[in-house]
Amino acid sequence: MGPAARLIAAAEAAAEVMDADGRRLALRRLTALDKLRLFKAAGPMLAQNQMWLGMAVLACSVAAIDDVPVPQPANEAQIEALVARLGDGGIAAVSAALGGPAESVDVAIAKN
Q: CB-hemisphere CA count at 13 Å for 34?
C-alpha cells in the first residue's frame, strides 16, 4: 500500500485534532467520490505524484478549522491555498492524527 493509500485509509478513522497554533481541526472521511474529485482537481500529472498527492490528501481531510467549514478544493490552486492556510503545524497535526509521522511528510516534500 502506497503512502497516499495509507493516508486515505487513516483519514477514515480520525475525527478532530488540535494543531500547534491551537486551532481545532475537524477531520472528514474521504469518500470514494471525494477521492475521485481530488484526483480530478490535482490533474493527471499531480495525481501520479505520490508526495504531492499525500499532502493534498492531508489538506482535503480537514472539514473545518475552529468550527468554520472548509470546502473541498476543486482545483490545484485551491488545494495549494488550503495547504498554505493549514501551514506546517496544521499539516503535521493532521498527519499525526491520521497515523503518519509528520516528519515523513516533510521528508517527502523535500525529496519532491
A: 18
Q: Is the dihedral of CA 45, 46, 47, 48 positive or negative?
A: positive
- Is pTM beyond 0.90? Reply is no
Number of alpha carbons in the 13 Å side-chain half-sphere of residue 86: 30
pLDDT band at 73 (very low <50, low <70, confident <90, very high): very high
Cα Rg for the chain, rounded, in angstroms? 12
> What gap in Å lies between CA 108 and CA 14, rounded to an integer?
22
Residue with cell 492524527: 97
- Which three cell numbers mark 43? 490533474
Report whether 82 contacts 59 (CB < 8 A). Answer: yes
Angle, helices 50-60 vs 76-97, to 10°: value is 80
